[in-house]
Amino acid sequence: MVCEALTLTIPLFSNFTSKDAKRVATKNYNLSRSAPRIRCSSSSAESHVTADKLENDYALTGTAYDFERATISLTGKSISSAKKVTLVRHGLSSWNEEGRVQGSSNLSVLTETGVMQAERCRKALANMYFDQCFSSPISRAKTTAEVLWQGREEPLVFLDSLKEAHLFFLEGMKNVDAKVIYPKEYATWREDPANFYVNGVYPVRKLWATAREAWMEILFTAGENFLVVTHKSMLRALICTALGLAPERFRSIDVNNGGISTFSFNRRGEAMLQSLNMTAHMYSDHVYLS
């Protein structure tokens, strides 16, 4: 691997017409030179360049994560420590297989394939330490969590705030039938989910509020590493709320059965998405180390 130090462009402060502009430019310049910028490539194993060690990994992201208000705080106040949260979608369920709308129904259960997917997740995460595992109590997520948590000491914690969105009369219907019987409602659910409503209830908007409740329960729990097992729509809500995205962005996130995503939180409760929908373990014996 070859690494080179990148040159810094020093601003010509004399070009600034106001003292405030000069002060801001000077501050930004001092920040930019506080850590060397390094670019690496794998073009040669023999050549190598020495450089001062970066103080911490945050410098690799331009140190933005270490600044106040770089992102939003989910908690509104400090949490006990920095935390890492690993999110997992449940394995393939019977209604996934049949093409039915699941929602919050407890009638859709993990299939044999789904159990195998959960087992693959367990093996992929076997080298990672978790203080606690939180799960939706709905059957397909609960069974996935039980497989994932085999051999761990702490008891599973089931949170109602991790339940899937309630989709009323659509639940249990095959998608092809729902499209014909309830064309207007189904089209809204598929194409404009934030505005899908039944009897004055907006399930996706409600899901955003529930996701924030789940984050509060998780982030204010003692410990630093957590595993969370839940459903696709809830995962969309958890990811979007952590990133400050509105319900209108509901379908901008996708997570496969058994897909793994990770977040880091600093002590201010600000989130950094580190990975999204990792599925290498579904197709190989890949093991995640951290």
Q: List the strand order in the largest sheet.
A: 5-4-6-3-7-8
- The number of helical segments is 9
- Class inferred from helices and paired strands: alpha/beta
Shape: globular
- How many E strands? 8
Helix percentage range: 25-40%
Uncertain residue segments? 1-19, 21-63
Profile the largest sheet: 6 strands, mixed
Q: Return Rg in Å.
A: 23 Å
Q: SSE order, as H and E?
A: EHEEHHEHEHHHEHEEH
Mean pLDDT, rounded to whole units? 83
Question: How big a fraction of the residues is strand?
Answer: 5-15%
N-to-C CA distance: 23 Å
General description of the model:
This protein is an alpha/beta fold. It is 31% helix and 14% strand. The chain is built from nine helices and eight strands. The strands form two sheets. The chain has a six-stranded mixed β-sheet with strand order 5-4-6-3-7-8. Strand 4, helix 4 (139-148) and strand 5 (157-158) form a beta-alpha-beta unit. Helix 3 (112-124) packs across helix 4 (139-148) and helix 5 (175-181) crosses helix 6 (183-191). The longest helix has 17 residues, at 203-219. It is globular, with a radius of gyration of 23 Å. It starts with a strand and ends in a 7-residue tail after the last helix. Residues 1-19 and 21-63 have low confidence and may be disordered.
